[in-house]
Amino acid sequence: MSGQIQWVNHGQWAEVVLSNPNKFNAMSRSMWRQLREVFEAVQTQSALRLVVVRGEGDHFCSGGDISEYPCFRFDEASLSDFHENEVWGGLSAILNVDVPVVADIRGNCMGAGVEIASCCDVRWAHVQARFGAPIAKLGFPMAPREAALIFATLGDLTAREMLLFASILDAPTMVQRGFLNGCWDTVALDDRLEQTVEKVLSLSSQAARLNKQTLRGLRVGVPADAQPASYAYANHPQHREGIAAFLDKRLPQF
């Protein structure tokens, strides 16, 4: 089996590690299936408040595992199954989780890596990280649902530049383009991630889950006033604690 998705559960937060180090963490077919399984499992863990997605070693993800491509890409049915079920199954599992997901991006973030990062809520990167989707060099387009995902996240200008011109962009440029929340050197990035974990664990997990559900609905075009049970949290303990802590001038205990 080529590569694996590792899930390290730290109790209230977890790391999901893309691991195929001999290929800069390129995503194999088995890894796409594992990605779906891991994030579907994450969704069932009520104690989790945050997930950090990273690559093993010095790279996030270099794209797809091209060594597997001759085995399935030249048949329309198997190609469709790969993109619509395996790839989109993994990506949609990330999109469907109700906890914040942070991308820790270092080294190469290409193709599949850009798609996975696009499913995350916050994207922190090393200042020397590189981004692109140069599949035009391989003679095929991006699958429609995957293209819609990166179009929505990267924006029209950057999506076209990557897909039509096979451009490779650096981290500072991706910050300027609005894809990254920020980029730093190694020490500062490690500090930022540690601070992010601490911050999220101090906040209301109930509020985060409800916000994720609302934002997911807005992303797929569900009108804000059509989302069911929008105020069912009224008597939730975290709602009561947050208000009480503010009035008592103390830190809330979520």
Task: Tell me about this structure.
The protein is an alpha/beta fold. The protein has 2 domains: 4-199, 2-enoyl-CoA Hydratase, Chain A, domain 1, CATH 3.90.226.10; 205-248, no CATH class. It contains 9 helices and 9 strands. It has helices at 29-43, 76-95, 112-118, 144-154, 156-165, 171-176, 186-202, 205-219, 237-248, and strands at residues 4-9, 13-19, 50-55, 101-105, 108-110, 122-126, 130-132, 168-170, 182-184. The strands form 2 sheets. Strands 1-2-3-4-6-9 form a 6-stranded mixed sheet, sandwiched between helices. Strand 2, helix 1 and strand 3 form a beta-alpha-beta unit. Helix 1 packs parallel to helix 2 (76-95) and helix 4 (144-154) crosses helix 5. The longest helix is centred in the middle third of the chain and has 20 residues, at 76-95. It is globular, with a radius of gyration of 19 Å. The mean pLDDT is 95.
